[in-house]
Amino acid sequence: MIQSVYIHIPFCQHICHYCDFTKFFYNEQLATEYLDALSNEINVQVQGEKNRVKTIFIGGGTPTALNYNQLKKLLAFVEEKFDVWNCVEYTIEANPGDFDEKKAKLLKEYGVNRVSLGVQVFDNAMLEELGRAHRIEDVYKTVELLKKEGLTNISLDMIYSLPNQTPEHFEKTVTEALSFDLPHYSAYSLQIEPKTIFYNKFKKGQLHRPAQEDEVEMYEILKNKMRASGLKQYEISNFSKPGFESKHNLTYWNNDYYYGFGAGASGYLPGKRTMNIRPLPAYIKQANEDGRPLLKVETIGLKEQIEEELFLGLRKLSGVSKRKFQDKYGFSLELLYKWQIDHLVQKGWLVDKKDKIHLSEQGVLFGNDAFEYFLLEDEDIKAIALTKK
Q1: Are residues 330 and 216 in the same domain?
Q2: Does a structural domain hold residue 188?
Q3: Are 120 and 81 within 8 A, CB to CB?
Q4: Where are the alpha helices (DSSP H) in 82-196?
Q5: Are 243 and 338 in the same domain?
Q6: 5, 15, 109, 113: which is closest to 54 by C-alpha?
Q7: Tens digit of pLDDT for each residue in 313-338?
Q8: Which helix (H) or strand (E) holds 188?
Q9: Are residues 103 and 226 in the same domain?
C-alpha cells in the first residue's frame, strides 16, 4: 500500500539564500497554470476519489505563498482526491507572516491538521542575512492565529551552524522557540548546497561558518534543552511530545512507499524511485500532456532497498528492528551485517540490543560515517540468495 502523499508547491515570495529545493518567485498566472498541471498529474496516477492514505504533506517552496483562491482550489482538489478526514496527519508548510485569518480558516475547513512553520532563527538581523521575509514578531502573530483557529499541532523548524552564529546565540533561539510550548520541533545544521547564494559566497570566501566544535556544541545544546523541556528526540533532527512525531516523515525513515507529485518531487513506489522534471515550463507541458512529468525512474533492487532500510532507519533514535527486518526480507540482519554491527559497537557508534540496533549518542554525531558501513556489494546479495536456497 502507498502510505503517503507528498505534493510540491514551488512558489515563494522570497528566495532564501541557502535553499536548493525546487522553487520560483510567485507569479499569479504561472501558479494557476501549475495547479492545473498538478491536478492532471495526480488524476492520471491516482484513479478515483477519496483514496485512503495515512499522511499527506504539502511542501515547497511555500504553499501558503499562493493567493486565497489558489490555495482554496488546491485544498479542495486534495480533499476530493484523498480521504483527508480519515488521514492520520495532513501537514502544510508555511512561513510566519503568510497567514491571515481567512487562510487559516481555509486550512481548518479542508482538513489540514498540522502546520510546519519555517522559523529558522530568532534574530531579525540573521533572518535578513538568510533572505527570509518574516521577522520575530511574525512568528508570535502566526502561532496565535493558528491556535485561534484550532490548528494547535504546529511544528517549528530551526537551522543552526549559521554564518557567524555562536553556541550562545543558538541557545537563545532554542530557548525562545521552546517558550511557545509546541508539540514538535526540528533543527537542522546548515548545508551549503550548489546553486544557492550561500554557495557562491562560500566559494568566494565570503561566508564565515562556525567551527566544527561549535556546531557540535550547538547540537548538544539543542538535545539538552529539548530533553529538559520534556520533548523526546525520536530522529537525529526531530523532537516531539509523545504522540506528536511526524507521521509523514516516519514514512520516509521507515522506508515505506509514498507518491511524489509536482515539479522536482520524488516518489518511492514498489521497485522504483521517481523524480519529476524541475523547470516549471517543462513540468507544466508534460503534466498536461500525459500526466507523467518524469525526469527519471530509478530501479530499486534488493541491494538498494536494504541499504536505504539501514540508512533511513538508523536516523531514528529507536533504530532498526531486527524482527521487522527479518519479516520484510526473509533473513536476519546479522546474516548480512554481523561484522559491521560488531565493529560499530566496538567503536562506540552503535548499540546492539536484543531486537534492535541504533546509533549511540556518539554515533549520532558521526551518522554519515556510520551509514557508510552498511553499503553493500552485489556479491553480498548473491551470497544471501544462495544461503536461502
Answers
A1: no
A2: yes
A3: no
A4: 101-109, 124-130, 136-148, 167-178
A5: no
A6: 5
A7: 999 999 999 999 999 999 999 999 99
A8: strand 184-189
A9: yes
Q: Which domain holds residue 203?
A: 4-253
Residue 210 binned pLDDT confidence (cut-offs 50, 70, 90): confident
| Domain annotation covers residue 291 | no
Tracing cell 532497498 back to the chain, one arrives at 305
| 279: in domain | no
For residue 339, list its beta bridge partners.
none
Tell me which residue of 204, 123, 198 sits closest to 163, measured CA to CA: 198
Match 480533499 to its residue by C-alpha cell: 79
**Mean pLDDT estimate for the chain:** 93
Answer with the one of 238, 253, 268 that is the final residue of a domain.
Answer: 253
| 200 pLDDT more than 70 | yes
SS3 14: coil
Contact 67, 27 (CB under 8 A): no
- Residue 346 pLDDT grade (very low, low, confident, very high; cuts 50, 70, 90): very high
C-alpha cell recorded at residue 110: 479542508
Contact 182, 238 (CB under 8 A): no
DSSP 211: P
Domain count for the chain = 2
Are residue 350 and residue 206 in the same domain, yes or no?
Answer: no
pTM of the model: 0.94
Q: Are residues 195 and 335 in the same domain?
A: no
Domain-embedded: residue 346: yes
Question: Of 226, 253, 280, which residue is a domain's last?
Answer: 253
User: In what helix (H) or strand (E) does residue 266 lie, and over which residues does it extend?
Assistant: strand 266-269
